[in-house]
Amino acid sequence: MKWFKKYHLELLLVLPMTFYILGFTLLPLIRTIILGFQNRYTGKFSLSTYQALFARPDFLKSISNTFVIALLSLSIQIVIAFIIALVLKQRFHGRSIIRAIVLMPMGIPTIVSGIIALYVFGTSGYFNELLFKLHLITKPINWLTGNFKGLLIIALADMWKVLPTLVLLLLAGLDSISQDIYEAAELDGANSWQSFRFITLPLLKPTITMAVLLRAVDVFRIFELPQVLVGKSVPFVSTFAYEEYDIGDLNGSGAASTILLLMILVFAILWLKFVDRGGSFGNDS
Amino acid sequence: MTKKAWRKFGFILLVTAISSLMVVPVYLLFKISISRPDEVLTQHPTFFVHHFDFSHWHDVLVSGNLWAPLRKSLIVATGTMIFATIIVAPASYAISRLDRKVKLAYIGSLFFTKMFPTVGIALPIAVTFTKLNLVDSDVGLILAHLINELPFMAWILLSTFSAIPKALEEAAMVDGATRMQTLRKIVFPVATQGIAVAALYVWLNSWNKFTFALYLSLTTQTLPLEVYYYVQRGSFFETAAYSTILAIPVIFITFILQRYLKSEYLSGTVK
């Protein structure tokens, strides 16, 4: 009661948001999970929806595609963002202009970045023309057909869109490492690769974990880019769930969404447990 | 050339490559929207505009298909921004003043809701809104967009409010200000910049958002949805023009926001 008296204003201020999140996020999610476990026609509890889903090759394909795009996208993004962050960390003329340019795609809506990828990687697109001008190809390649090429293009479009955010995150992490450590290492005879390997990477681990988790959640849920770039030909769990909803199979859509939630949670737990080992969330205080 | 000169040359090459990677795609989009079809729809599209052709823009602006989606997008983005600010600003202040443990738990659960797949939330929302007759309405879409934007905004504002020392409030109270006066005259003015930045971000996110609009629209459209339909119909040039319209306010606002962008807004770390 004393606690209540002390914090009554705080409670009053927090309640609307809390209720909104409970009512519009948690409750719908529970409903989605329940929908997945209901029979489509009788409404009774059953595993029939899941059995039907796992018997469909395109659903299995969507699961493997989602895993592949997550791994592909994340590794390309983190590496390229790292390179750009290291470049922007240098002091050179026009650095602030280059920084502003690098942040440009941040303002591009995801769906527009998909459309740009469509123009660049289409059969008569600009990427083919560039390769042609460089005499690397003679016949145009259709980048948007075929499973792996489709995945690659989606990963590139996704990378382009999120690079600014990742670069900013990594730059902030790099700035927080004291210059003294590098100087000390240099005195002890470390070369630049050793400084990078034994100072930058370990000290940047919390930042990298944050970046990987934030991005992983988004890549697993990837929706707009496949919808624009490849349509149904390369299914992902998200787009699969939407297609099911679109044809009126609410239970199938619910079950697919539940699987997607499970995939995200498993990835987050595995990462925190095996790669990060409590490095960033654990010693938060 | 000496080794140093080679290094410098390589560095310049790298910076040029990075800058082109970022700028050229945006340029191409705009370029297509003002190009003659024979420069684009060919085996060898040109990288520069040789003949300007504004007929696609003319078509888009005159066709009448632009204004209704544009209006809906503007209303929904602005509505989402206003409601999010009203709900989140007080809540974030309160959370930032709670016990450290309670605070961390709340932030943890906010992060947890970020993991939920949008399609999993949109499905039951669409079912419920169909019953409540909220499909196609502006209010319905605002309610849906708030789902993502509330945790996002709380993320930013928590770090804003946490940075305001409690001693500042206590000093005001000692001088005889009531709790409400302290909030109105001390805390919120200090936090104004953070709130403004967060609100603009929310506006942008809502303006860009596509998934909920896809689930919750039957006859009306938002601008991203309109762009999507033009892609599906395969009209190359209208798509480019619509995309440019969609991207212009966003690029503009992001350039303004850059100055105020702090890294903790992105990572959500709380001091």
TrEMBL record, chain A:
<dbReference type="InterPro" id="IPR035906">
    <property type="entry name" value="MetI-like_sf"/>
</dbReference>
<feature type="transmembrane region" description="Helical">
    <location>
        <begin position="12"/>
        <end position="37"/>
    </location>
</feature>
<keyword id="KW-0472">Membrane</keyword>
<feature type="transmembrane region" description="Helical">
    <location>
        <begin position="100"/>
        <end position="121"/>
    </location>
</feature>
<feature type="transmembrane region" description="Helical">
    <location>
        <begin position="254"/>
        <end position="272"/>
    </location>
</feature>
<dbReference type="InterPro" id="IPR000515">
    <property type="entry name" value="MetI-like"/>
</dbReference>
<keyword id="KW-1003">Cell membrane</keyword>
<feature type="transmembrane region" description="Helical">
    <location>
        <begin position="67"/>
        <end position="88"/>
    </location>
</feature>
<comment type="similarity">
    <text>Belongs to the binding-protein-dependent transport system permease family.</text>
</comment>
<keyword id="KW-1133">Transmembrane helix</keyword>
<dbReference type="Pfam" id="PF00528">
    <property type="entry name" value="BPD_transp_1"/>
</dbReference>
<keyword id="KW-0812">Transmembrane</keyword>
<protein>
    <submittedName>
        <fullName>Carbohydrate ABC transporter permease</fullName>
    </submittedName>
</protein>
<keyword id="KW-0813">Transport</keyword>
<feature type="domain" description="ABC transmembrane type-1">
    <location>
        <begin position="63"/>
        <end position="271"/>
    </location>
</feature>
<feature type="transmembrane region" description="Helical">
    <location>
        <begin position="151"/>
        <end position="174"/>
    </location>
</feature>
From TrEMBL, chain B:
<feature type="transmembrane region" description="Helical">
    <location>
        <begin position="74"/>
        <end position="95"/>
    </location>
</feature>
<feature type="transmembrane region" description="Helical">
    <location>
        <begin position="186"/>
        <end position="204"/>
    </location>
</feature>
<feature type="transmembrane region" description="Helical">
    <location>
        <begin position="240"/>
        <end position="261"/>
    </location>
</feature>
<dbReference type="Pfam" id="PF00528">
    <property type="entry name" value="BPD_transp_1"/>
</dbReference>
<protein>
    <submittedName>
        <fullName>Carbohydrate ABC transporter permease</fullName>
    </submittedName>
</protein>
<feature type="domain" description="ABC transmembrane type-1">
    <location>
        <begin position="70"/>
        <end position="257"/>
    </location>
</feature>
<keyword id="KW-0812">Transmembrane</keyword>
<feature type="transmembrane region" description="Helical">
    <location>
        <begin position="9"/>
        <end position="30"/>
    </location>
</feature>
<keyword id="KW-0472">Membrane</keyword>
<keyword id="KW-0762">Sugar transport</keyword>
<keyword id="KW-0813">Transport</keyword>
<comment type="similarity">
    <text>Belongs to the binding-protein-dependent transport system permease family. MalFG subfamily.</text>
</comment>
<feature type="transmembrane region" description="Helical">
    <location>
        <begin position="104"/>
        <end position="127"/>
    </location>
</feature>
<keyword id="KW-1003">Cell membrane</keyword>
<dbReference type="InterPro" id="IPR050901">
    <property type="entry name" value="BP-dep_ABC_trans_perm"/>
</dbReference>
<dbReference type="InterPro" id="IPR035906">
    <property type="entry name" value="MetI-like_sf"/>
</dbReference>
<dbReference type="InterPro" id="IPR000515">
    <property type="entry name" value="MetI-like"/>
</dbReference>
<keyword id="KW-1133">Transmembrane helix</keyword>
<feature type="transmembrane region" description="Helical">
    <location>
        <begin position="139"/>
        <end position="165"/>
    </location>
</feature>
